[in-house]
Amino acid sequence: MAALPSSVKAFYKDVKNFIIPPKHTTPISITVNKKTYKVTADTRTTLLDLLREQLHLTGAKKGCDHGQCGACTVHINGKHVLSCLTLAAQAAGKEVTTIEGLAEGDKLHPMQKAFIECDGFQCGYCTPGQIMSAVACVNEGHTKSLAAIKEFMSGNLCRCGAYNGIVESIQKVAAL
Ligand code: FES
Ligand code: FES
After folding, report:
1. Residues in the ligand 2 pocket, defined by CB under 6 Å
2. pLDDT mean across residues, the chain
3. Parent domain of 136
4. End-of-domain residue from the set 76, 101, 126
5. What is the DSSP string of the chain?
6. Domain tally for the chain?
7. What is the reported pTM?
């Protein structure tokens, strides 16, 4: 590099700056599972990465990181969202709930109990996202028919094929 003329070096620097935009950070105040965190994050940080890497809440899983599998599903202000497609900054000042915040102490959420009772999982990798979507499915009233449940849950993939148990769990909780 030292032997290159300065004009060539300047050219490489311009290309590098174009390809790798400079990092911008922003302070974020975010409430997760009723606890408020004040963090500084790259403006491009997704909510999923913030939860897992900065807040060490690893319940939400990174399956595809492209909005295709539902493993990263969490709730923001009670609505289910894909945290891999949500910027952390978008959740600032809002109430985020992850799978870690669903139980009350040792008392499991009814949906967590139902997943255990109905064999709603095998390896468990997709389960946090399935449960967060399942809770939203019941809360938002999409349980009138089997088809409505399947349609609502269609964004959550399960490679173990535990779909029958997942649907049964939702029907069980909807009937409570
Ligand atoms: Fe977010 Fe797959 S990791 S949808
Ligand atoms: Fe294994 Fe769903 S339980 S991917």
Report:
1. 121-127, 158-160, 162
2. 94
3. 110-174
4. 101
5. -TTS-HHHHHHHHHHHHHHSPPP-EEEEEEEETTEEEEEEEETT-BHHHIIIIIS----S--SSSSSSS-TTEEEETTEEEEGGGSBGGGGTTSEEE-GGGTSBTTB--HHHHHHHHTT--SS-SSHHHHHHHHHHHHHTT--SSHHHHHHHGGG---TT--HHHHHHHHHHHHT-
6. 2
7. 0.88
